[in-house]
Design a protein that fits this description.
153 residues, alpha+beta, 6-stranded mixed beta sheet
Length: 153
């Protein structure tokens, strides 16, 4: 009896394993077919396009060196790290005046390198991470995303 049960289980297990492998091969050959749409609702973002639009505007402003435009994309007061110290940036004028200290060359490079596809964007309870270093985070402020935190350089 044991051999009979074992033989049946082995055949059934082998079929499931083969089916699982076949599904993996198909999914690997067709990237994106079974990917769910990005869901940012748990942080208050209504759609993926809201994230893409924010990132595009931010990248254009940083690439152009438009300090005012970047400053308008920030939620104030902003906590930033300047020379290893936590500094509160109270308003747009403060941000513009300290722009190079807040958005160092490395931070700006990270912003510009950020991909715009859903699979390129990391999101968790802290918000939308901009760049790959975890230095810049954005959260909804009213109807639009704004930079909520700039962490250590």
């Amino acid at each position: 009896m044991t051999q009979s049960v074992m033989k049946t289980w082995t055949k059934a297990g082998a079929r499931r394993l083969m089916l699982g492998l076949a599904v993996c091969v198909v999914l690997a050959a067709l990237p994106g077919v079974c990917l769910a749409k990005a869901d940012y609702s748990f942080i208050g973002v209504k759609s993926e396009s809201q994230v893409t639009q924010f990132l595009t505007r931010l990248q254009k402003a940083v690439a152009a060196g438009d300090r005012q435009a970047v400053a308008k994309m920030v939620s104030y007061p902003l906590m930033a790290v300047i020379d290893g110290q936590d500094v509160e940036i109270a308003a747009e004028a403060d941000f513009v005046a300290r722009y190079d200290q807040i958005l160092t060359e490395d931070v700006r490079a990270g912003i510009l390198a950020q991909g715009l596809k859903a699979e390129d964007v990391f999101v968790n309870k802290d918000g939308v991470m901009v760049g790959d270093s975890g230095r810049i985070w954005a959260l909804p402020d009213g109807k639009e995303l704004r930079i909520s935190e700039i962490r250590g350089q």
